[in-house]
Amino acid sequence: MKNHIKTITLYVSCLFILISCTETVAPPTAINPTPSEKQLKWHDMQFYAFTHFSLNTFTNKEWGYGDESPTLFNPTALDTRQWARIVKDAGMKGIIITAKHHDGFCLWPSAYTERSVKNSPWKNGQGDVVKELAEACKEYGLKLGIYLSPWDRNHPEYGKPGYITYFRNQLKELLTNYGDVFEIWFDGANGGDGYYGGANEMRKINTLEYYNWEETYKMIYDISPNTLTWGVGPSEARWIGNEEGRAGKTNWAPLRQKDELAGKVHYTEFMSGHIDGEKWVPGEADVSTRPGWFYHEVEDDKVRPIEEMVDIYYESIGRNANLLLNIPIDKRGLVNEHDEARLKELTAIIKADFKTELLVNSEVSATNVRGNNKVYAASNVINNQKNSYWATDDDINSASITFEFKEPTNVNRLLLQEYVKLGQRVKTFNVEVNINGTWKTVANETTIGYKRILRFPRVKANAIRVNITDAKGCLVISTIKAYSAPTLVKSPIIERNKNGVIKLSAEQNNNIFYTLDGTTPTPNSTLYKKPFKYTEAVKIKAIALNTQENITSAVTTSNYGKSKEKWGIVSATSGDLKTAEKVIDGNPRTIWGLGNNEHKLPQEIIIDMGSQLTINGFTYFPQQVGNNLYLISKYEFYTSTNKTKWTKQSAGEFSNIKNNPIEQIKTFKSCKARYLKFIATAAIGNSNSVSIGEIGVLENK
Ligand code: FUL
Hints:
Elements: H1 2-22, H2 37-45, E1 47-51, H3 55-59, H4 80-89, E2 94-100, H5 129-140, E3 143-148, H6 161-176, E4 181-186, E5 192-194, E6 201-203, H7 207-210, H8 213-223, E7 228-231, E8 238-239, E9 254-255, H9 257-261, E10 279-280, E11 283-288, H10 306-316, E12 321-326, H11 337-353, E13 363-366, E14 390-391, E15 399-418, E16 426-435, E17 438-445, E18 452-471, E19 476-483, E20 493-496, E21 501-505, E22 510-515, E23 526-527, E24 532-533, E25 538-546, E26 551-552, E27 556-560, E28 568-572, H12 577-580, E29 603-621, E30 632-640, E31 647-653, E32 664-683, E33 694-699
Parallel strand pairs: 1-2, 1-12, 2-3, 3-4, 4-7, 8-11, 11-12
Antiparallel strand pairs: 5-6, 9-10, 13-15, 14-19, 15-18, 15-19, 16-17, 16-18, 20-21, 21-24, 22-23, 22-25, 25-26, 25-27, 28-29, 29-32, 29-33, 30-31, 30-32
Helix pairs in contact: 4-5, 6-8
The structure holds beta-L-fucopyranose.
Beta-L-fucopyranose is lined by residues 62-63, 187-189, 286, 293, 656, 659.
């Protein structure tokens, strides 16, 4: 009898399972906003290149004024196939080119202006860079994107209705003559002083009204429906709010775009989007391999260190954003060797980090599965099918999913994806690992979105559990993957103060080895023990060694002129001389000038270098820390051997300093000098206040 009952029970439960598995359970309803098909395709691209290349490449500027002659554009070995090969090898999916930057020079022979390649010596005016790139992209299976600067510092009619017709005509040319364009990039820098056909004046416009973006976008979609619009106006993707390539840890694709268009959103909010945003406007993180966007020879040794590049990857793609990585094209018309080498390193590290997926053979279970139906099974997250997902019941917006390994497994990366076609939902989650029976939390996080990648210290885990603790509705998770990435040893930081004291630092328990003669350091080089003094010009190279795993870091190189030991402040127009000393203390984080009302422009500082030096440039490190950076936008720089007769060596603007407050390097003809006079003549913003982190010189070798 007992057995009989057992059989019946078994039979009933099998039937129940069978019914619940075959029964169709409706998929979750979408939570608005949701992405369009075009946006979904764009999300899948994840990683693509930016190429800044124009007249600026030849004039050594970041922003041209608009009066530079097109005859200066003369690459000696332009090869867009080389760009495409390097981009493809780096695993990127497309290239966006600066068809026209702010100075108005066109890389294609536009029918609407003389200011283009057609009036340059390159290919006797017969060339077309956009066409060559479109062809190379096609050959290498890459998508083409276009940057067309709305701001045009050359055009006589900029600011008037005539320019809008010109701008739209150029858009038409670019969107019809070069095949498919996956993205059109409209930069936010707009209005200011410029050449404007010889008027040489300041022109300010209201970006939103002037361009009538609604209409401009309508025109774009009519001509080229598959082109995604980026940037100003009611666009389909947004700036990430900085030029460092980093998204917020919390990052919603939704954005309150209506508020943004009404001027009610500060750009720093772009890093995180808005939980209550009414439109799907995902973030794209743009950053250059170097400090500047255009190629400058002085930045050849300033390509971002490999650890920074890796961080950028994880803090953009790993934080629900696409990564747009700029590779400046050099004067030859090629990707420079320095950038190519760094890209290869980055590609190798990313490949190694995601080499072996670890969850694929694990046992998966979840605390809730929608309708108990296998269509929404927890195991869908490891089946590698983009269109399947684990979902929970409608009333369940928190649940756990557990992966049990067959044997203890090393893990330090977790990749998660929501099925964003149905909206971005997860608000908070955490990750636990089970080590020999004890659960330990390794991450406490907020959003997931299209893709989230977590890095945590390597653990040998028996199981991993992801607890989603809050969401906008039921859960819809398409992918969870885990990896064990090799250890990346961070290269040392090199600092030298005013008196020439050199300090090297690295991660805890790492040894540092260095050289002072320009040779590559190895673990047989000098072991760093404590800060030491070295006042002469020197090239320091250092590596860190993780002694536990016996792995070395990449090399950090720092070039120094003579130390500023003998430097002093002669005079400063604001504050006491002691505070002014901060501009020569070797530390860009300490500043002179605190944006208060006493500091009116112009501001001037005179420095005595203590002895006569031969110099051919100066550097200005803007303030790095603080909410208001009091940045200098225009300057004059003078030198003197006797403090009475001054020679103007350089004057002009620090272009793009607002969005990218990097060290500014200005070169000039070599001269002898003992005294330096730096004058700030204009500042960013309305405060009229300025500050300086550090002033330095470029010494002639
Ligand atoms: C900025 C521009 O002003 C820069 O020159 C550069 O093109 C960068 C990508 O966007 O805002």
